[in-house]
Amino acid sequence: MTMVIHLHRTPGDDTPSTYNLPSPEEAGIGASDWSGVSVSSALQYLQRAVDPALAFSLSCRRGLCNVCAMRIDGVVTTACTTPMRDGILIEPARSKLLLRDTVIELSLVRRARMDAVTPLAGERDA
Ligand code: FES
Fold first, then answer.
1. Which end of the chain has the least Cβ crowding within 10 Å, N or C?
2. What's the gap in Å between 81 CA and the centre of ligand 1?
3. At 32, which CATH number?
4. Which atom of ligand 1 is nearest to the CA of 61?
């Protein structure tokens, strides 16, 4: 069984790129079915076998760091913890912070978090 991914890669373009994935065996993925494979693993396959220019972020692969956050079928979630499904739509989490493909600028988010904890750090130091 093949699997279809629709991936928004161009800001302002409502037409997503469509990729037909081969079976996991043909793709060299250690699974019998794509539904047991994470979205991030499918993106890794696409980057490795189809388009080396595809950009996405990945770090812990356990749903802990949120670096791989993207909008999947309309819901912002982590790609490493979301299982693949046929016809899945993948978009950047925030189009205003988009750098490329599904990669967004996280420094603003991190700065906001640091600003939120800075008063506590100041109290601890005083
Ligand atoms: S890579 Fe860390 S949450 Fe997905």
1. C
2. 8
3. 3.10.20.30
4. 1
Range of the domain at 99: 3-125
Pocket of ligand 1 (CB under 6 A): 58-61, 63-68, 78, 80
Tell whether the torsion through CA atoms of 16, 89, 53 and 67 is positive or negative.
Answer: positive
According to the model, what pLDDT value does residue 126 have?
45
- Specify the number of domains making up the chain: 1
Residue 50 falls in which region: left (phi positive, over 0), alpha (psi -120 to 50) or beta: alpha
In the reported structure, the alpha carbon of residue 115 is separated from the centroid of ligand 1 by a whole-number distance in angstroms of 23
Q: Between β-strands 69-72 and 103-104, what pairing exists: parallel, antiparallel or unpaired?
A: unpaired
Q: Identify residue 72 by its one-letter amino acid code.
A: I
The one-digit pLDDT tens for each residue of the chain (126 residues) are: 568 989 887 767 778 889 999 999 999 988 889 988 999 999 999 999 999 999 899 999 999 988 898 889 999 999 999 999 999 999 888 777 777 787 877 776 666 666 766 655 445 544
